[in-house]
Amino acid sequence: MGKFLLGTSLLAVSLVLSGCTAEGEGLEPTPEPTPTIDQELVPTAPPAEVVDVDPGAFLTSYGDVIFKVGDGPTWCTMSEFDDFVICEHKEFDAKYELLPVPADCEYTYGFQLRLRGKPVEGSKMAEFTCANANWSDASSSPVLASGERITTFGFNCFVEGQVARCENSTGDFIVLGPEAWATSE
Known about the structure:
mainly beta; 6-stranded mixed beta sheet; 9% helix; globular
């Protein structure tokens, strides 16, 4: 009986130990799924009676066009020099489920969307950025109201409620507001 008990104990210990590996050894991390947004919150086209506004009223002294998005916390910067549009808001203003942060990002992620005018090798046309600061300061910028559209530098952006949708000349787009985000990619 003693040999049986000893044999059973050794078998149990060997089974337990055979399942153990050093931390991370041979295991691939499982990526977190990207949360989805209710598509009803994502504008797809400007309203039928959209009002086109003069981009000159939004032009900064350094050549960018910056506007606040309706009465919400989001703002967008249209840059001719950098050939992109960035829409952003602060982390605490996001009401949507947070996005998983990429392993190579040591800052914030999921609060700043960039849309390029032309392809850049190694980058998507429309993507979230890993950011350690806001791209621009919209504190003194005018508001692009709901139902208004601004077109400049090869981009057009319109506002629906508290959400902005910006497109480039090839149809790529970004959408950002406190409750919604979307990209063409």
